[in-house]
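User: I'm writing a tutorial on reading structure tokens. Could you give me a worked example: one chain, its sequence, then its tokens, then a sentence or two explaining what the tokens reveal?
Assistant: Sure. Here is the example chain.
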Amino acid sequence: MEWYFVLAFFIFGLIFLLLLGFPIAFSFLAIDLLGIIVFMGPGGLKQVTLQVFSSLSTFTLAPIPMFILMGEIMFQSKLANNTIDIIDKWLGRLPGRLSLLAAAGGTIFSALSGSSIANTAMLGTALLPEMKKRGYKTSMAVGPIIGVGGLAMLIPPSSLIVVMASIAHISVGKLLVGGAIPGLLMGVLYTAYILIRCWLNSTLAPRYDVSKVSLKIKIIGTVKYAFPLLFIIFMVLGLMLLGLATPTEAASSGAVATLLVTLFYGRLNWKMLKDSLTGTLEITIMVFMIIAASKTFSSILAYTGATQGLLEVIEGLKVHPILILMGMQLSVFILGMFMETISIMMISLPIFMPIVHMLGFDPIWFGIIMLINFEMGMTTPPFGMMLFVMKGVASDDISIKDICYAALPFIGCDLVAMAMIIIWPALVLWLPGLMG
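And here are its predicted structure tokens:
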């Protein structure tokens, strides 16, 4: 059978199952099992089972439950709320003050939670009512929260990065560290857009009087509420950069640090711990099933020759490699309008990574570009997950159409960041190059 029939079988079969409403993991496993029987015969089940076992029983996947646990503890204990309050005191009467607070708070919380959905829900619940009360237009109230919410995909600790590294067979530690500067860059671009727009049109975010806070109170609040969270970030990112811990060890130390900080603030209790562990277990099982399905998908593509056939076609194209890169990103962007992130990742990475190696692209650099694209997919109409999360926490007078329009400028900021990373790969590769 020709290789393109194999690819079409999997892609269209998977889309069909997802449209029927099957969960992602079960849809992939079902189409994989059918593919094994069709293309490899019943004997292929044993071979693939052994490969799945070896892919899951690996030390590199251990950070996933630890990063998820960190995010669950941060979300359940509401530790980030105090940090938002102290950032608010430092902003004074800047244009678009609450929107800037969303951008700054969301960037910091991204370095603690690893969950884009939790990030968006937390910021929307905490800031949106106050923004509406102060007369902020929907575009400047909703847009920054949606934009910055997706940074949790890029800034470590991100369990999605570990999943991506496992599927793409690239370094977990370097991919985690490589997302830090691009994530901060996107936060800076969001902040610049907010300042410029609010300076040009003050009606988007009307200024209001705020009570003056002494420098002493600001410093005390920063030490009390911000420094302990910086300690958590150091226990993950800092230890990896210094070469003192592997990603697994850094994830474990980050989870312990999060528990200690929660205890320090008096937020640690049995109910919070039980809810955090339950959420961690549910998400981890789903993620591991997805990884198993992706490994099976890659094995079938290799066995049937679909991967090699696609490589031969790409190799025969007489175009610049950057055009091929843009074609891959365009296909992912279009898929992001209709599909969930992990589904796109499982479909695209087994196909794209051999092309990446053939063209000589750095896999860490390519991985970060893909993550930015995945982040845009979560904010792209009509089926972006972040749009629906925001609708869930917004008031009834804010329509889904308003939310979609509010997200567009921040998607533009993401595209600028992606272009900058393509032009200057050092934005991604410099920090991983410093790892001990």
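What the tokens reveal: Residues 58-433 form one domain. The chain has one domain: 58-433.
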